[in-house]
Amino acid sequence: MDFKRLFIVIQLVVSSFAYSQSSLAGYKLIGSSTGITQLTEAQVKDYFKGKYTLWKTGKSVKVVFYSSQSQHSVPLAKSIYNTTPQGVKKYWLSLVFQGRANPPTFLESDSAIISYIQDTPGAIGFIQQNTPCPSQLIIQIK
Amino acid sequence: MKNTLFVSICLLCSMSIWSQRLRSVVNGYGHMNYNFLHDFEANADPTNSSFELGEHDLFVNTFFNDRISFLGEFVMKYTKGTPTTFSASIERARLKFDYYKNHSVITGKIHTPINYWNDVYHHGRLFFPSIDRPTSFSYLIPLHNLGVQFQGQNLGKWNFGYDAVVGNGISSSDAFDDNLSPAITLSMHIKPVDNLRIGISYFYDFLTDASIRGAHSGHSVAPSHSPGEKYTGNLHYNLLSQSTAYFGNKHEFLNEFVFNRTHTDTLGYANNLSNYTYYGLRIKEKHVPYAIVDWISIAENDLFTYHYDIMRLWMGYRYEFSEMINVKTQFGYTFNFLNAGHGSVNNLEFKVQFAYGF
């Protein structure tokens, strides 16, 4: 095996390991009236940190996140905010208090999140990968 | 015809606003203190201790549509001399219009985006890393402004942000300014990595009568300015501020530097300085011991704040029960190098504060 092949094999192993380590892997991103169909993982994190105000459609960005009662809030809080679900709440309370972001909505179940997003243009949130939802809501993560 | 068209457009606009659901979010914030103070210069009763019911803050966010929102902050606090010994105040009431991407225009009463603390915390003691604001808040920082603000945030890969404000100045009230010259604030910051914000700002105001303290210069907690007869002439007020804030999972650091230059025809330029440094270390998930060095130096020829040199050293401990309630304790000493009629003297203090939100 020459060095080039070895390098490719290492790259593949590293990238597959990195993918399996991503806490977003077990979840899919959904949104309504956002005007986009795909985002990079870095962009997703930026949206969930309140860094963007408006979508291209002119709708305001409304973040939906699992409430701390949901077991899914822990891995997503770690992956996106590098903190605990309580830390996520504190982060948003502070940001909203500054008047620099719209307050997010915290919901416990996938069905509640899907229903809220369907009813709220500009809303974006995560649900579990295996939860069925209308295909037009799905936003691919590159 | 023109009138009919105008009325039709107005009707259509109102219908489009009201056909969307109005969304309001209400929060409350408050605090309670215990204060112990020993005054080393008092001859009689040098020590006192007291419980204090602090500010209670109703915080309202309303979204009229995707681009227009209202933010209000209404505070009740102890105020000596009023019939009920409490007073209510509108600390913020602003309408925000997000006109393009991350750019907004805001009108109303705001917290002057003059440094990190005033922009981020102000009345939210739940978010304060320590019990008290920096000393400069009682003397130098123009806390509020009433006017028009242009704001941009999270622009580019450095997360650049700007604020430009034109509004009523230091000596104005919430309904009246005493001259034609508005106060101007220019502020910018970057957030190159998560949890780090570095900013710089400039504020200018012209006061026709430097003895007038309006609704935007400070709060009732400010120590008295009583050097005898006050200067009542014109005064130019310049303030340059630099902030560096890092609040990570382990380390917390905040430095607020203020350079204030006033000018009067009587005594010329006066240069005033202030610096506040906070460092906290999260030793466990909910435990943060911290230390503070806070000083202010007002020049001898200053005719607005008046000659003053003070340094405060604090050691403190913060315990966070949850994201909605914490307790802080602080122990500190105030060195008062010079006192031109100001309220503070050399003293030893111990404080406890419960801060909460809901």
Q: How are the secondary structure elements laid out?
A:
The complex is a heterodimer of chains A (142) and B (358).
Chain A: H1 3-21, E1 27-31, E2 38-39, H2 41-48, E3 62-66, H3 73-81, H4 85-97, E4 105-107, H5 110-119, E5 123-128, E6 138-141
Parallel strand pairs in A: 2-6, 3-4, 3-5
Antiparallel strand pairs in A: 1-5, 1-6
Chain B: H1 2-18, E1 23-39, E2 47-63, E3 68-78, E4 86-100, E5 103-111, H2 116-120, H3 136-139, E6 144-155, E7 160-168, E8 183-190, E9 196-207, E10 235-247, E11 251-264, E12 268-281, E13 287-298, E14 308-322, E15 325-339, E16 347-357
Antiparallel strand pairs in B: 1-2, 1-16, 2-3, 3-4, 4-5, 5-6, 6-7, 7-8, 8-9, 9-10, 10-11, 11-12, 12-13, 13-14, 14-15, 15-16
Task: Note down, in words, how this protein is organized.
- The complex is a heterodimer of chains A (142) and B (358).
- Chain A has 142 residues and is of the alpha/beta class.
- Chain A has a single domain, classed as D-Maltodextrin-Binding Protein, domain 2.
- In chain A, 42% of the residues lie in helices and 18% in strands.
- Chain A has five helices and six strands; from the N terminus they run αββαβααβαββ.
- Chain B has one domain: Porin.
- Chain B has three helices and 16 strands.
- In chain B, strands 1-2-3-4-5-6-7-8-9-10-11-12-13-14-15-16 form a 16-stranded antiparallel barrel.
- Chain B starts with a helix and ends with a strand.
- About 4% of the residues of chain B have low confidence.
Number of strands of chain A: 6
What oligomeric assembly is this protein in? Answer: heterodimer
CATH superfamily of chain B: Porin
Mean pLDDT of chain B: 88
State the CATH architecture of chain B.
Beta Barrel
Percent in strands of chain A = 15-25%
Order of helices and strands of chain B: HEEEEEHHEEEEEEEEEEE
Shape of chain B: globular
**Annotated CATH architecture of chain A:** 3-Layer(aba) Sandwich
The level 1 CATH classification of chain B is: Mainly Beta
Level of helix content of chain A? 40-55%
Shape of chain A: globular
Which fold does the CATH topology of chain B refer to?
Porin
CATH class of chain A: Alpha Beta
**Any idea of the CATH topology of chain A?**
D-Maltodextrin-Binding Protein, domain 2
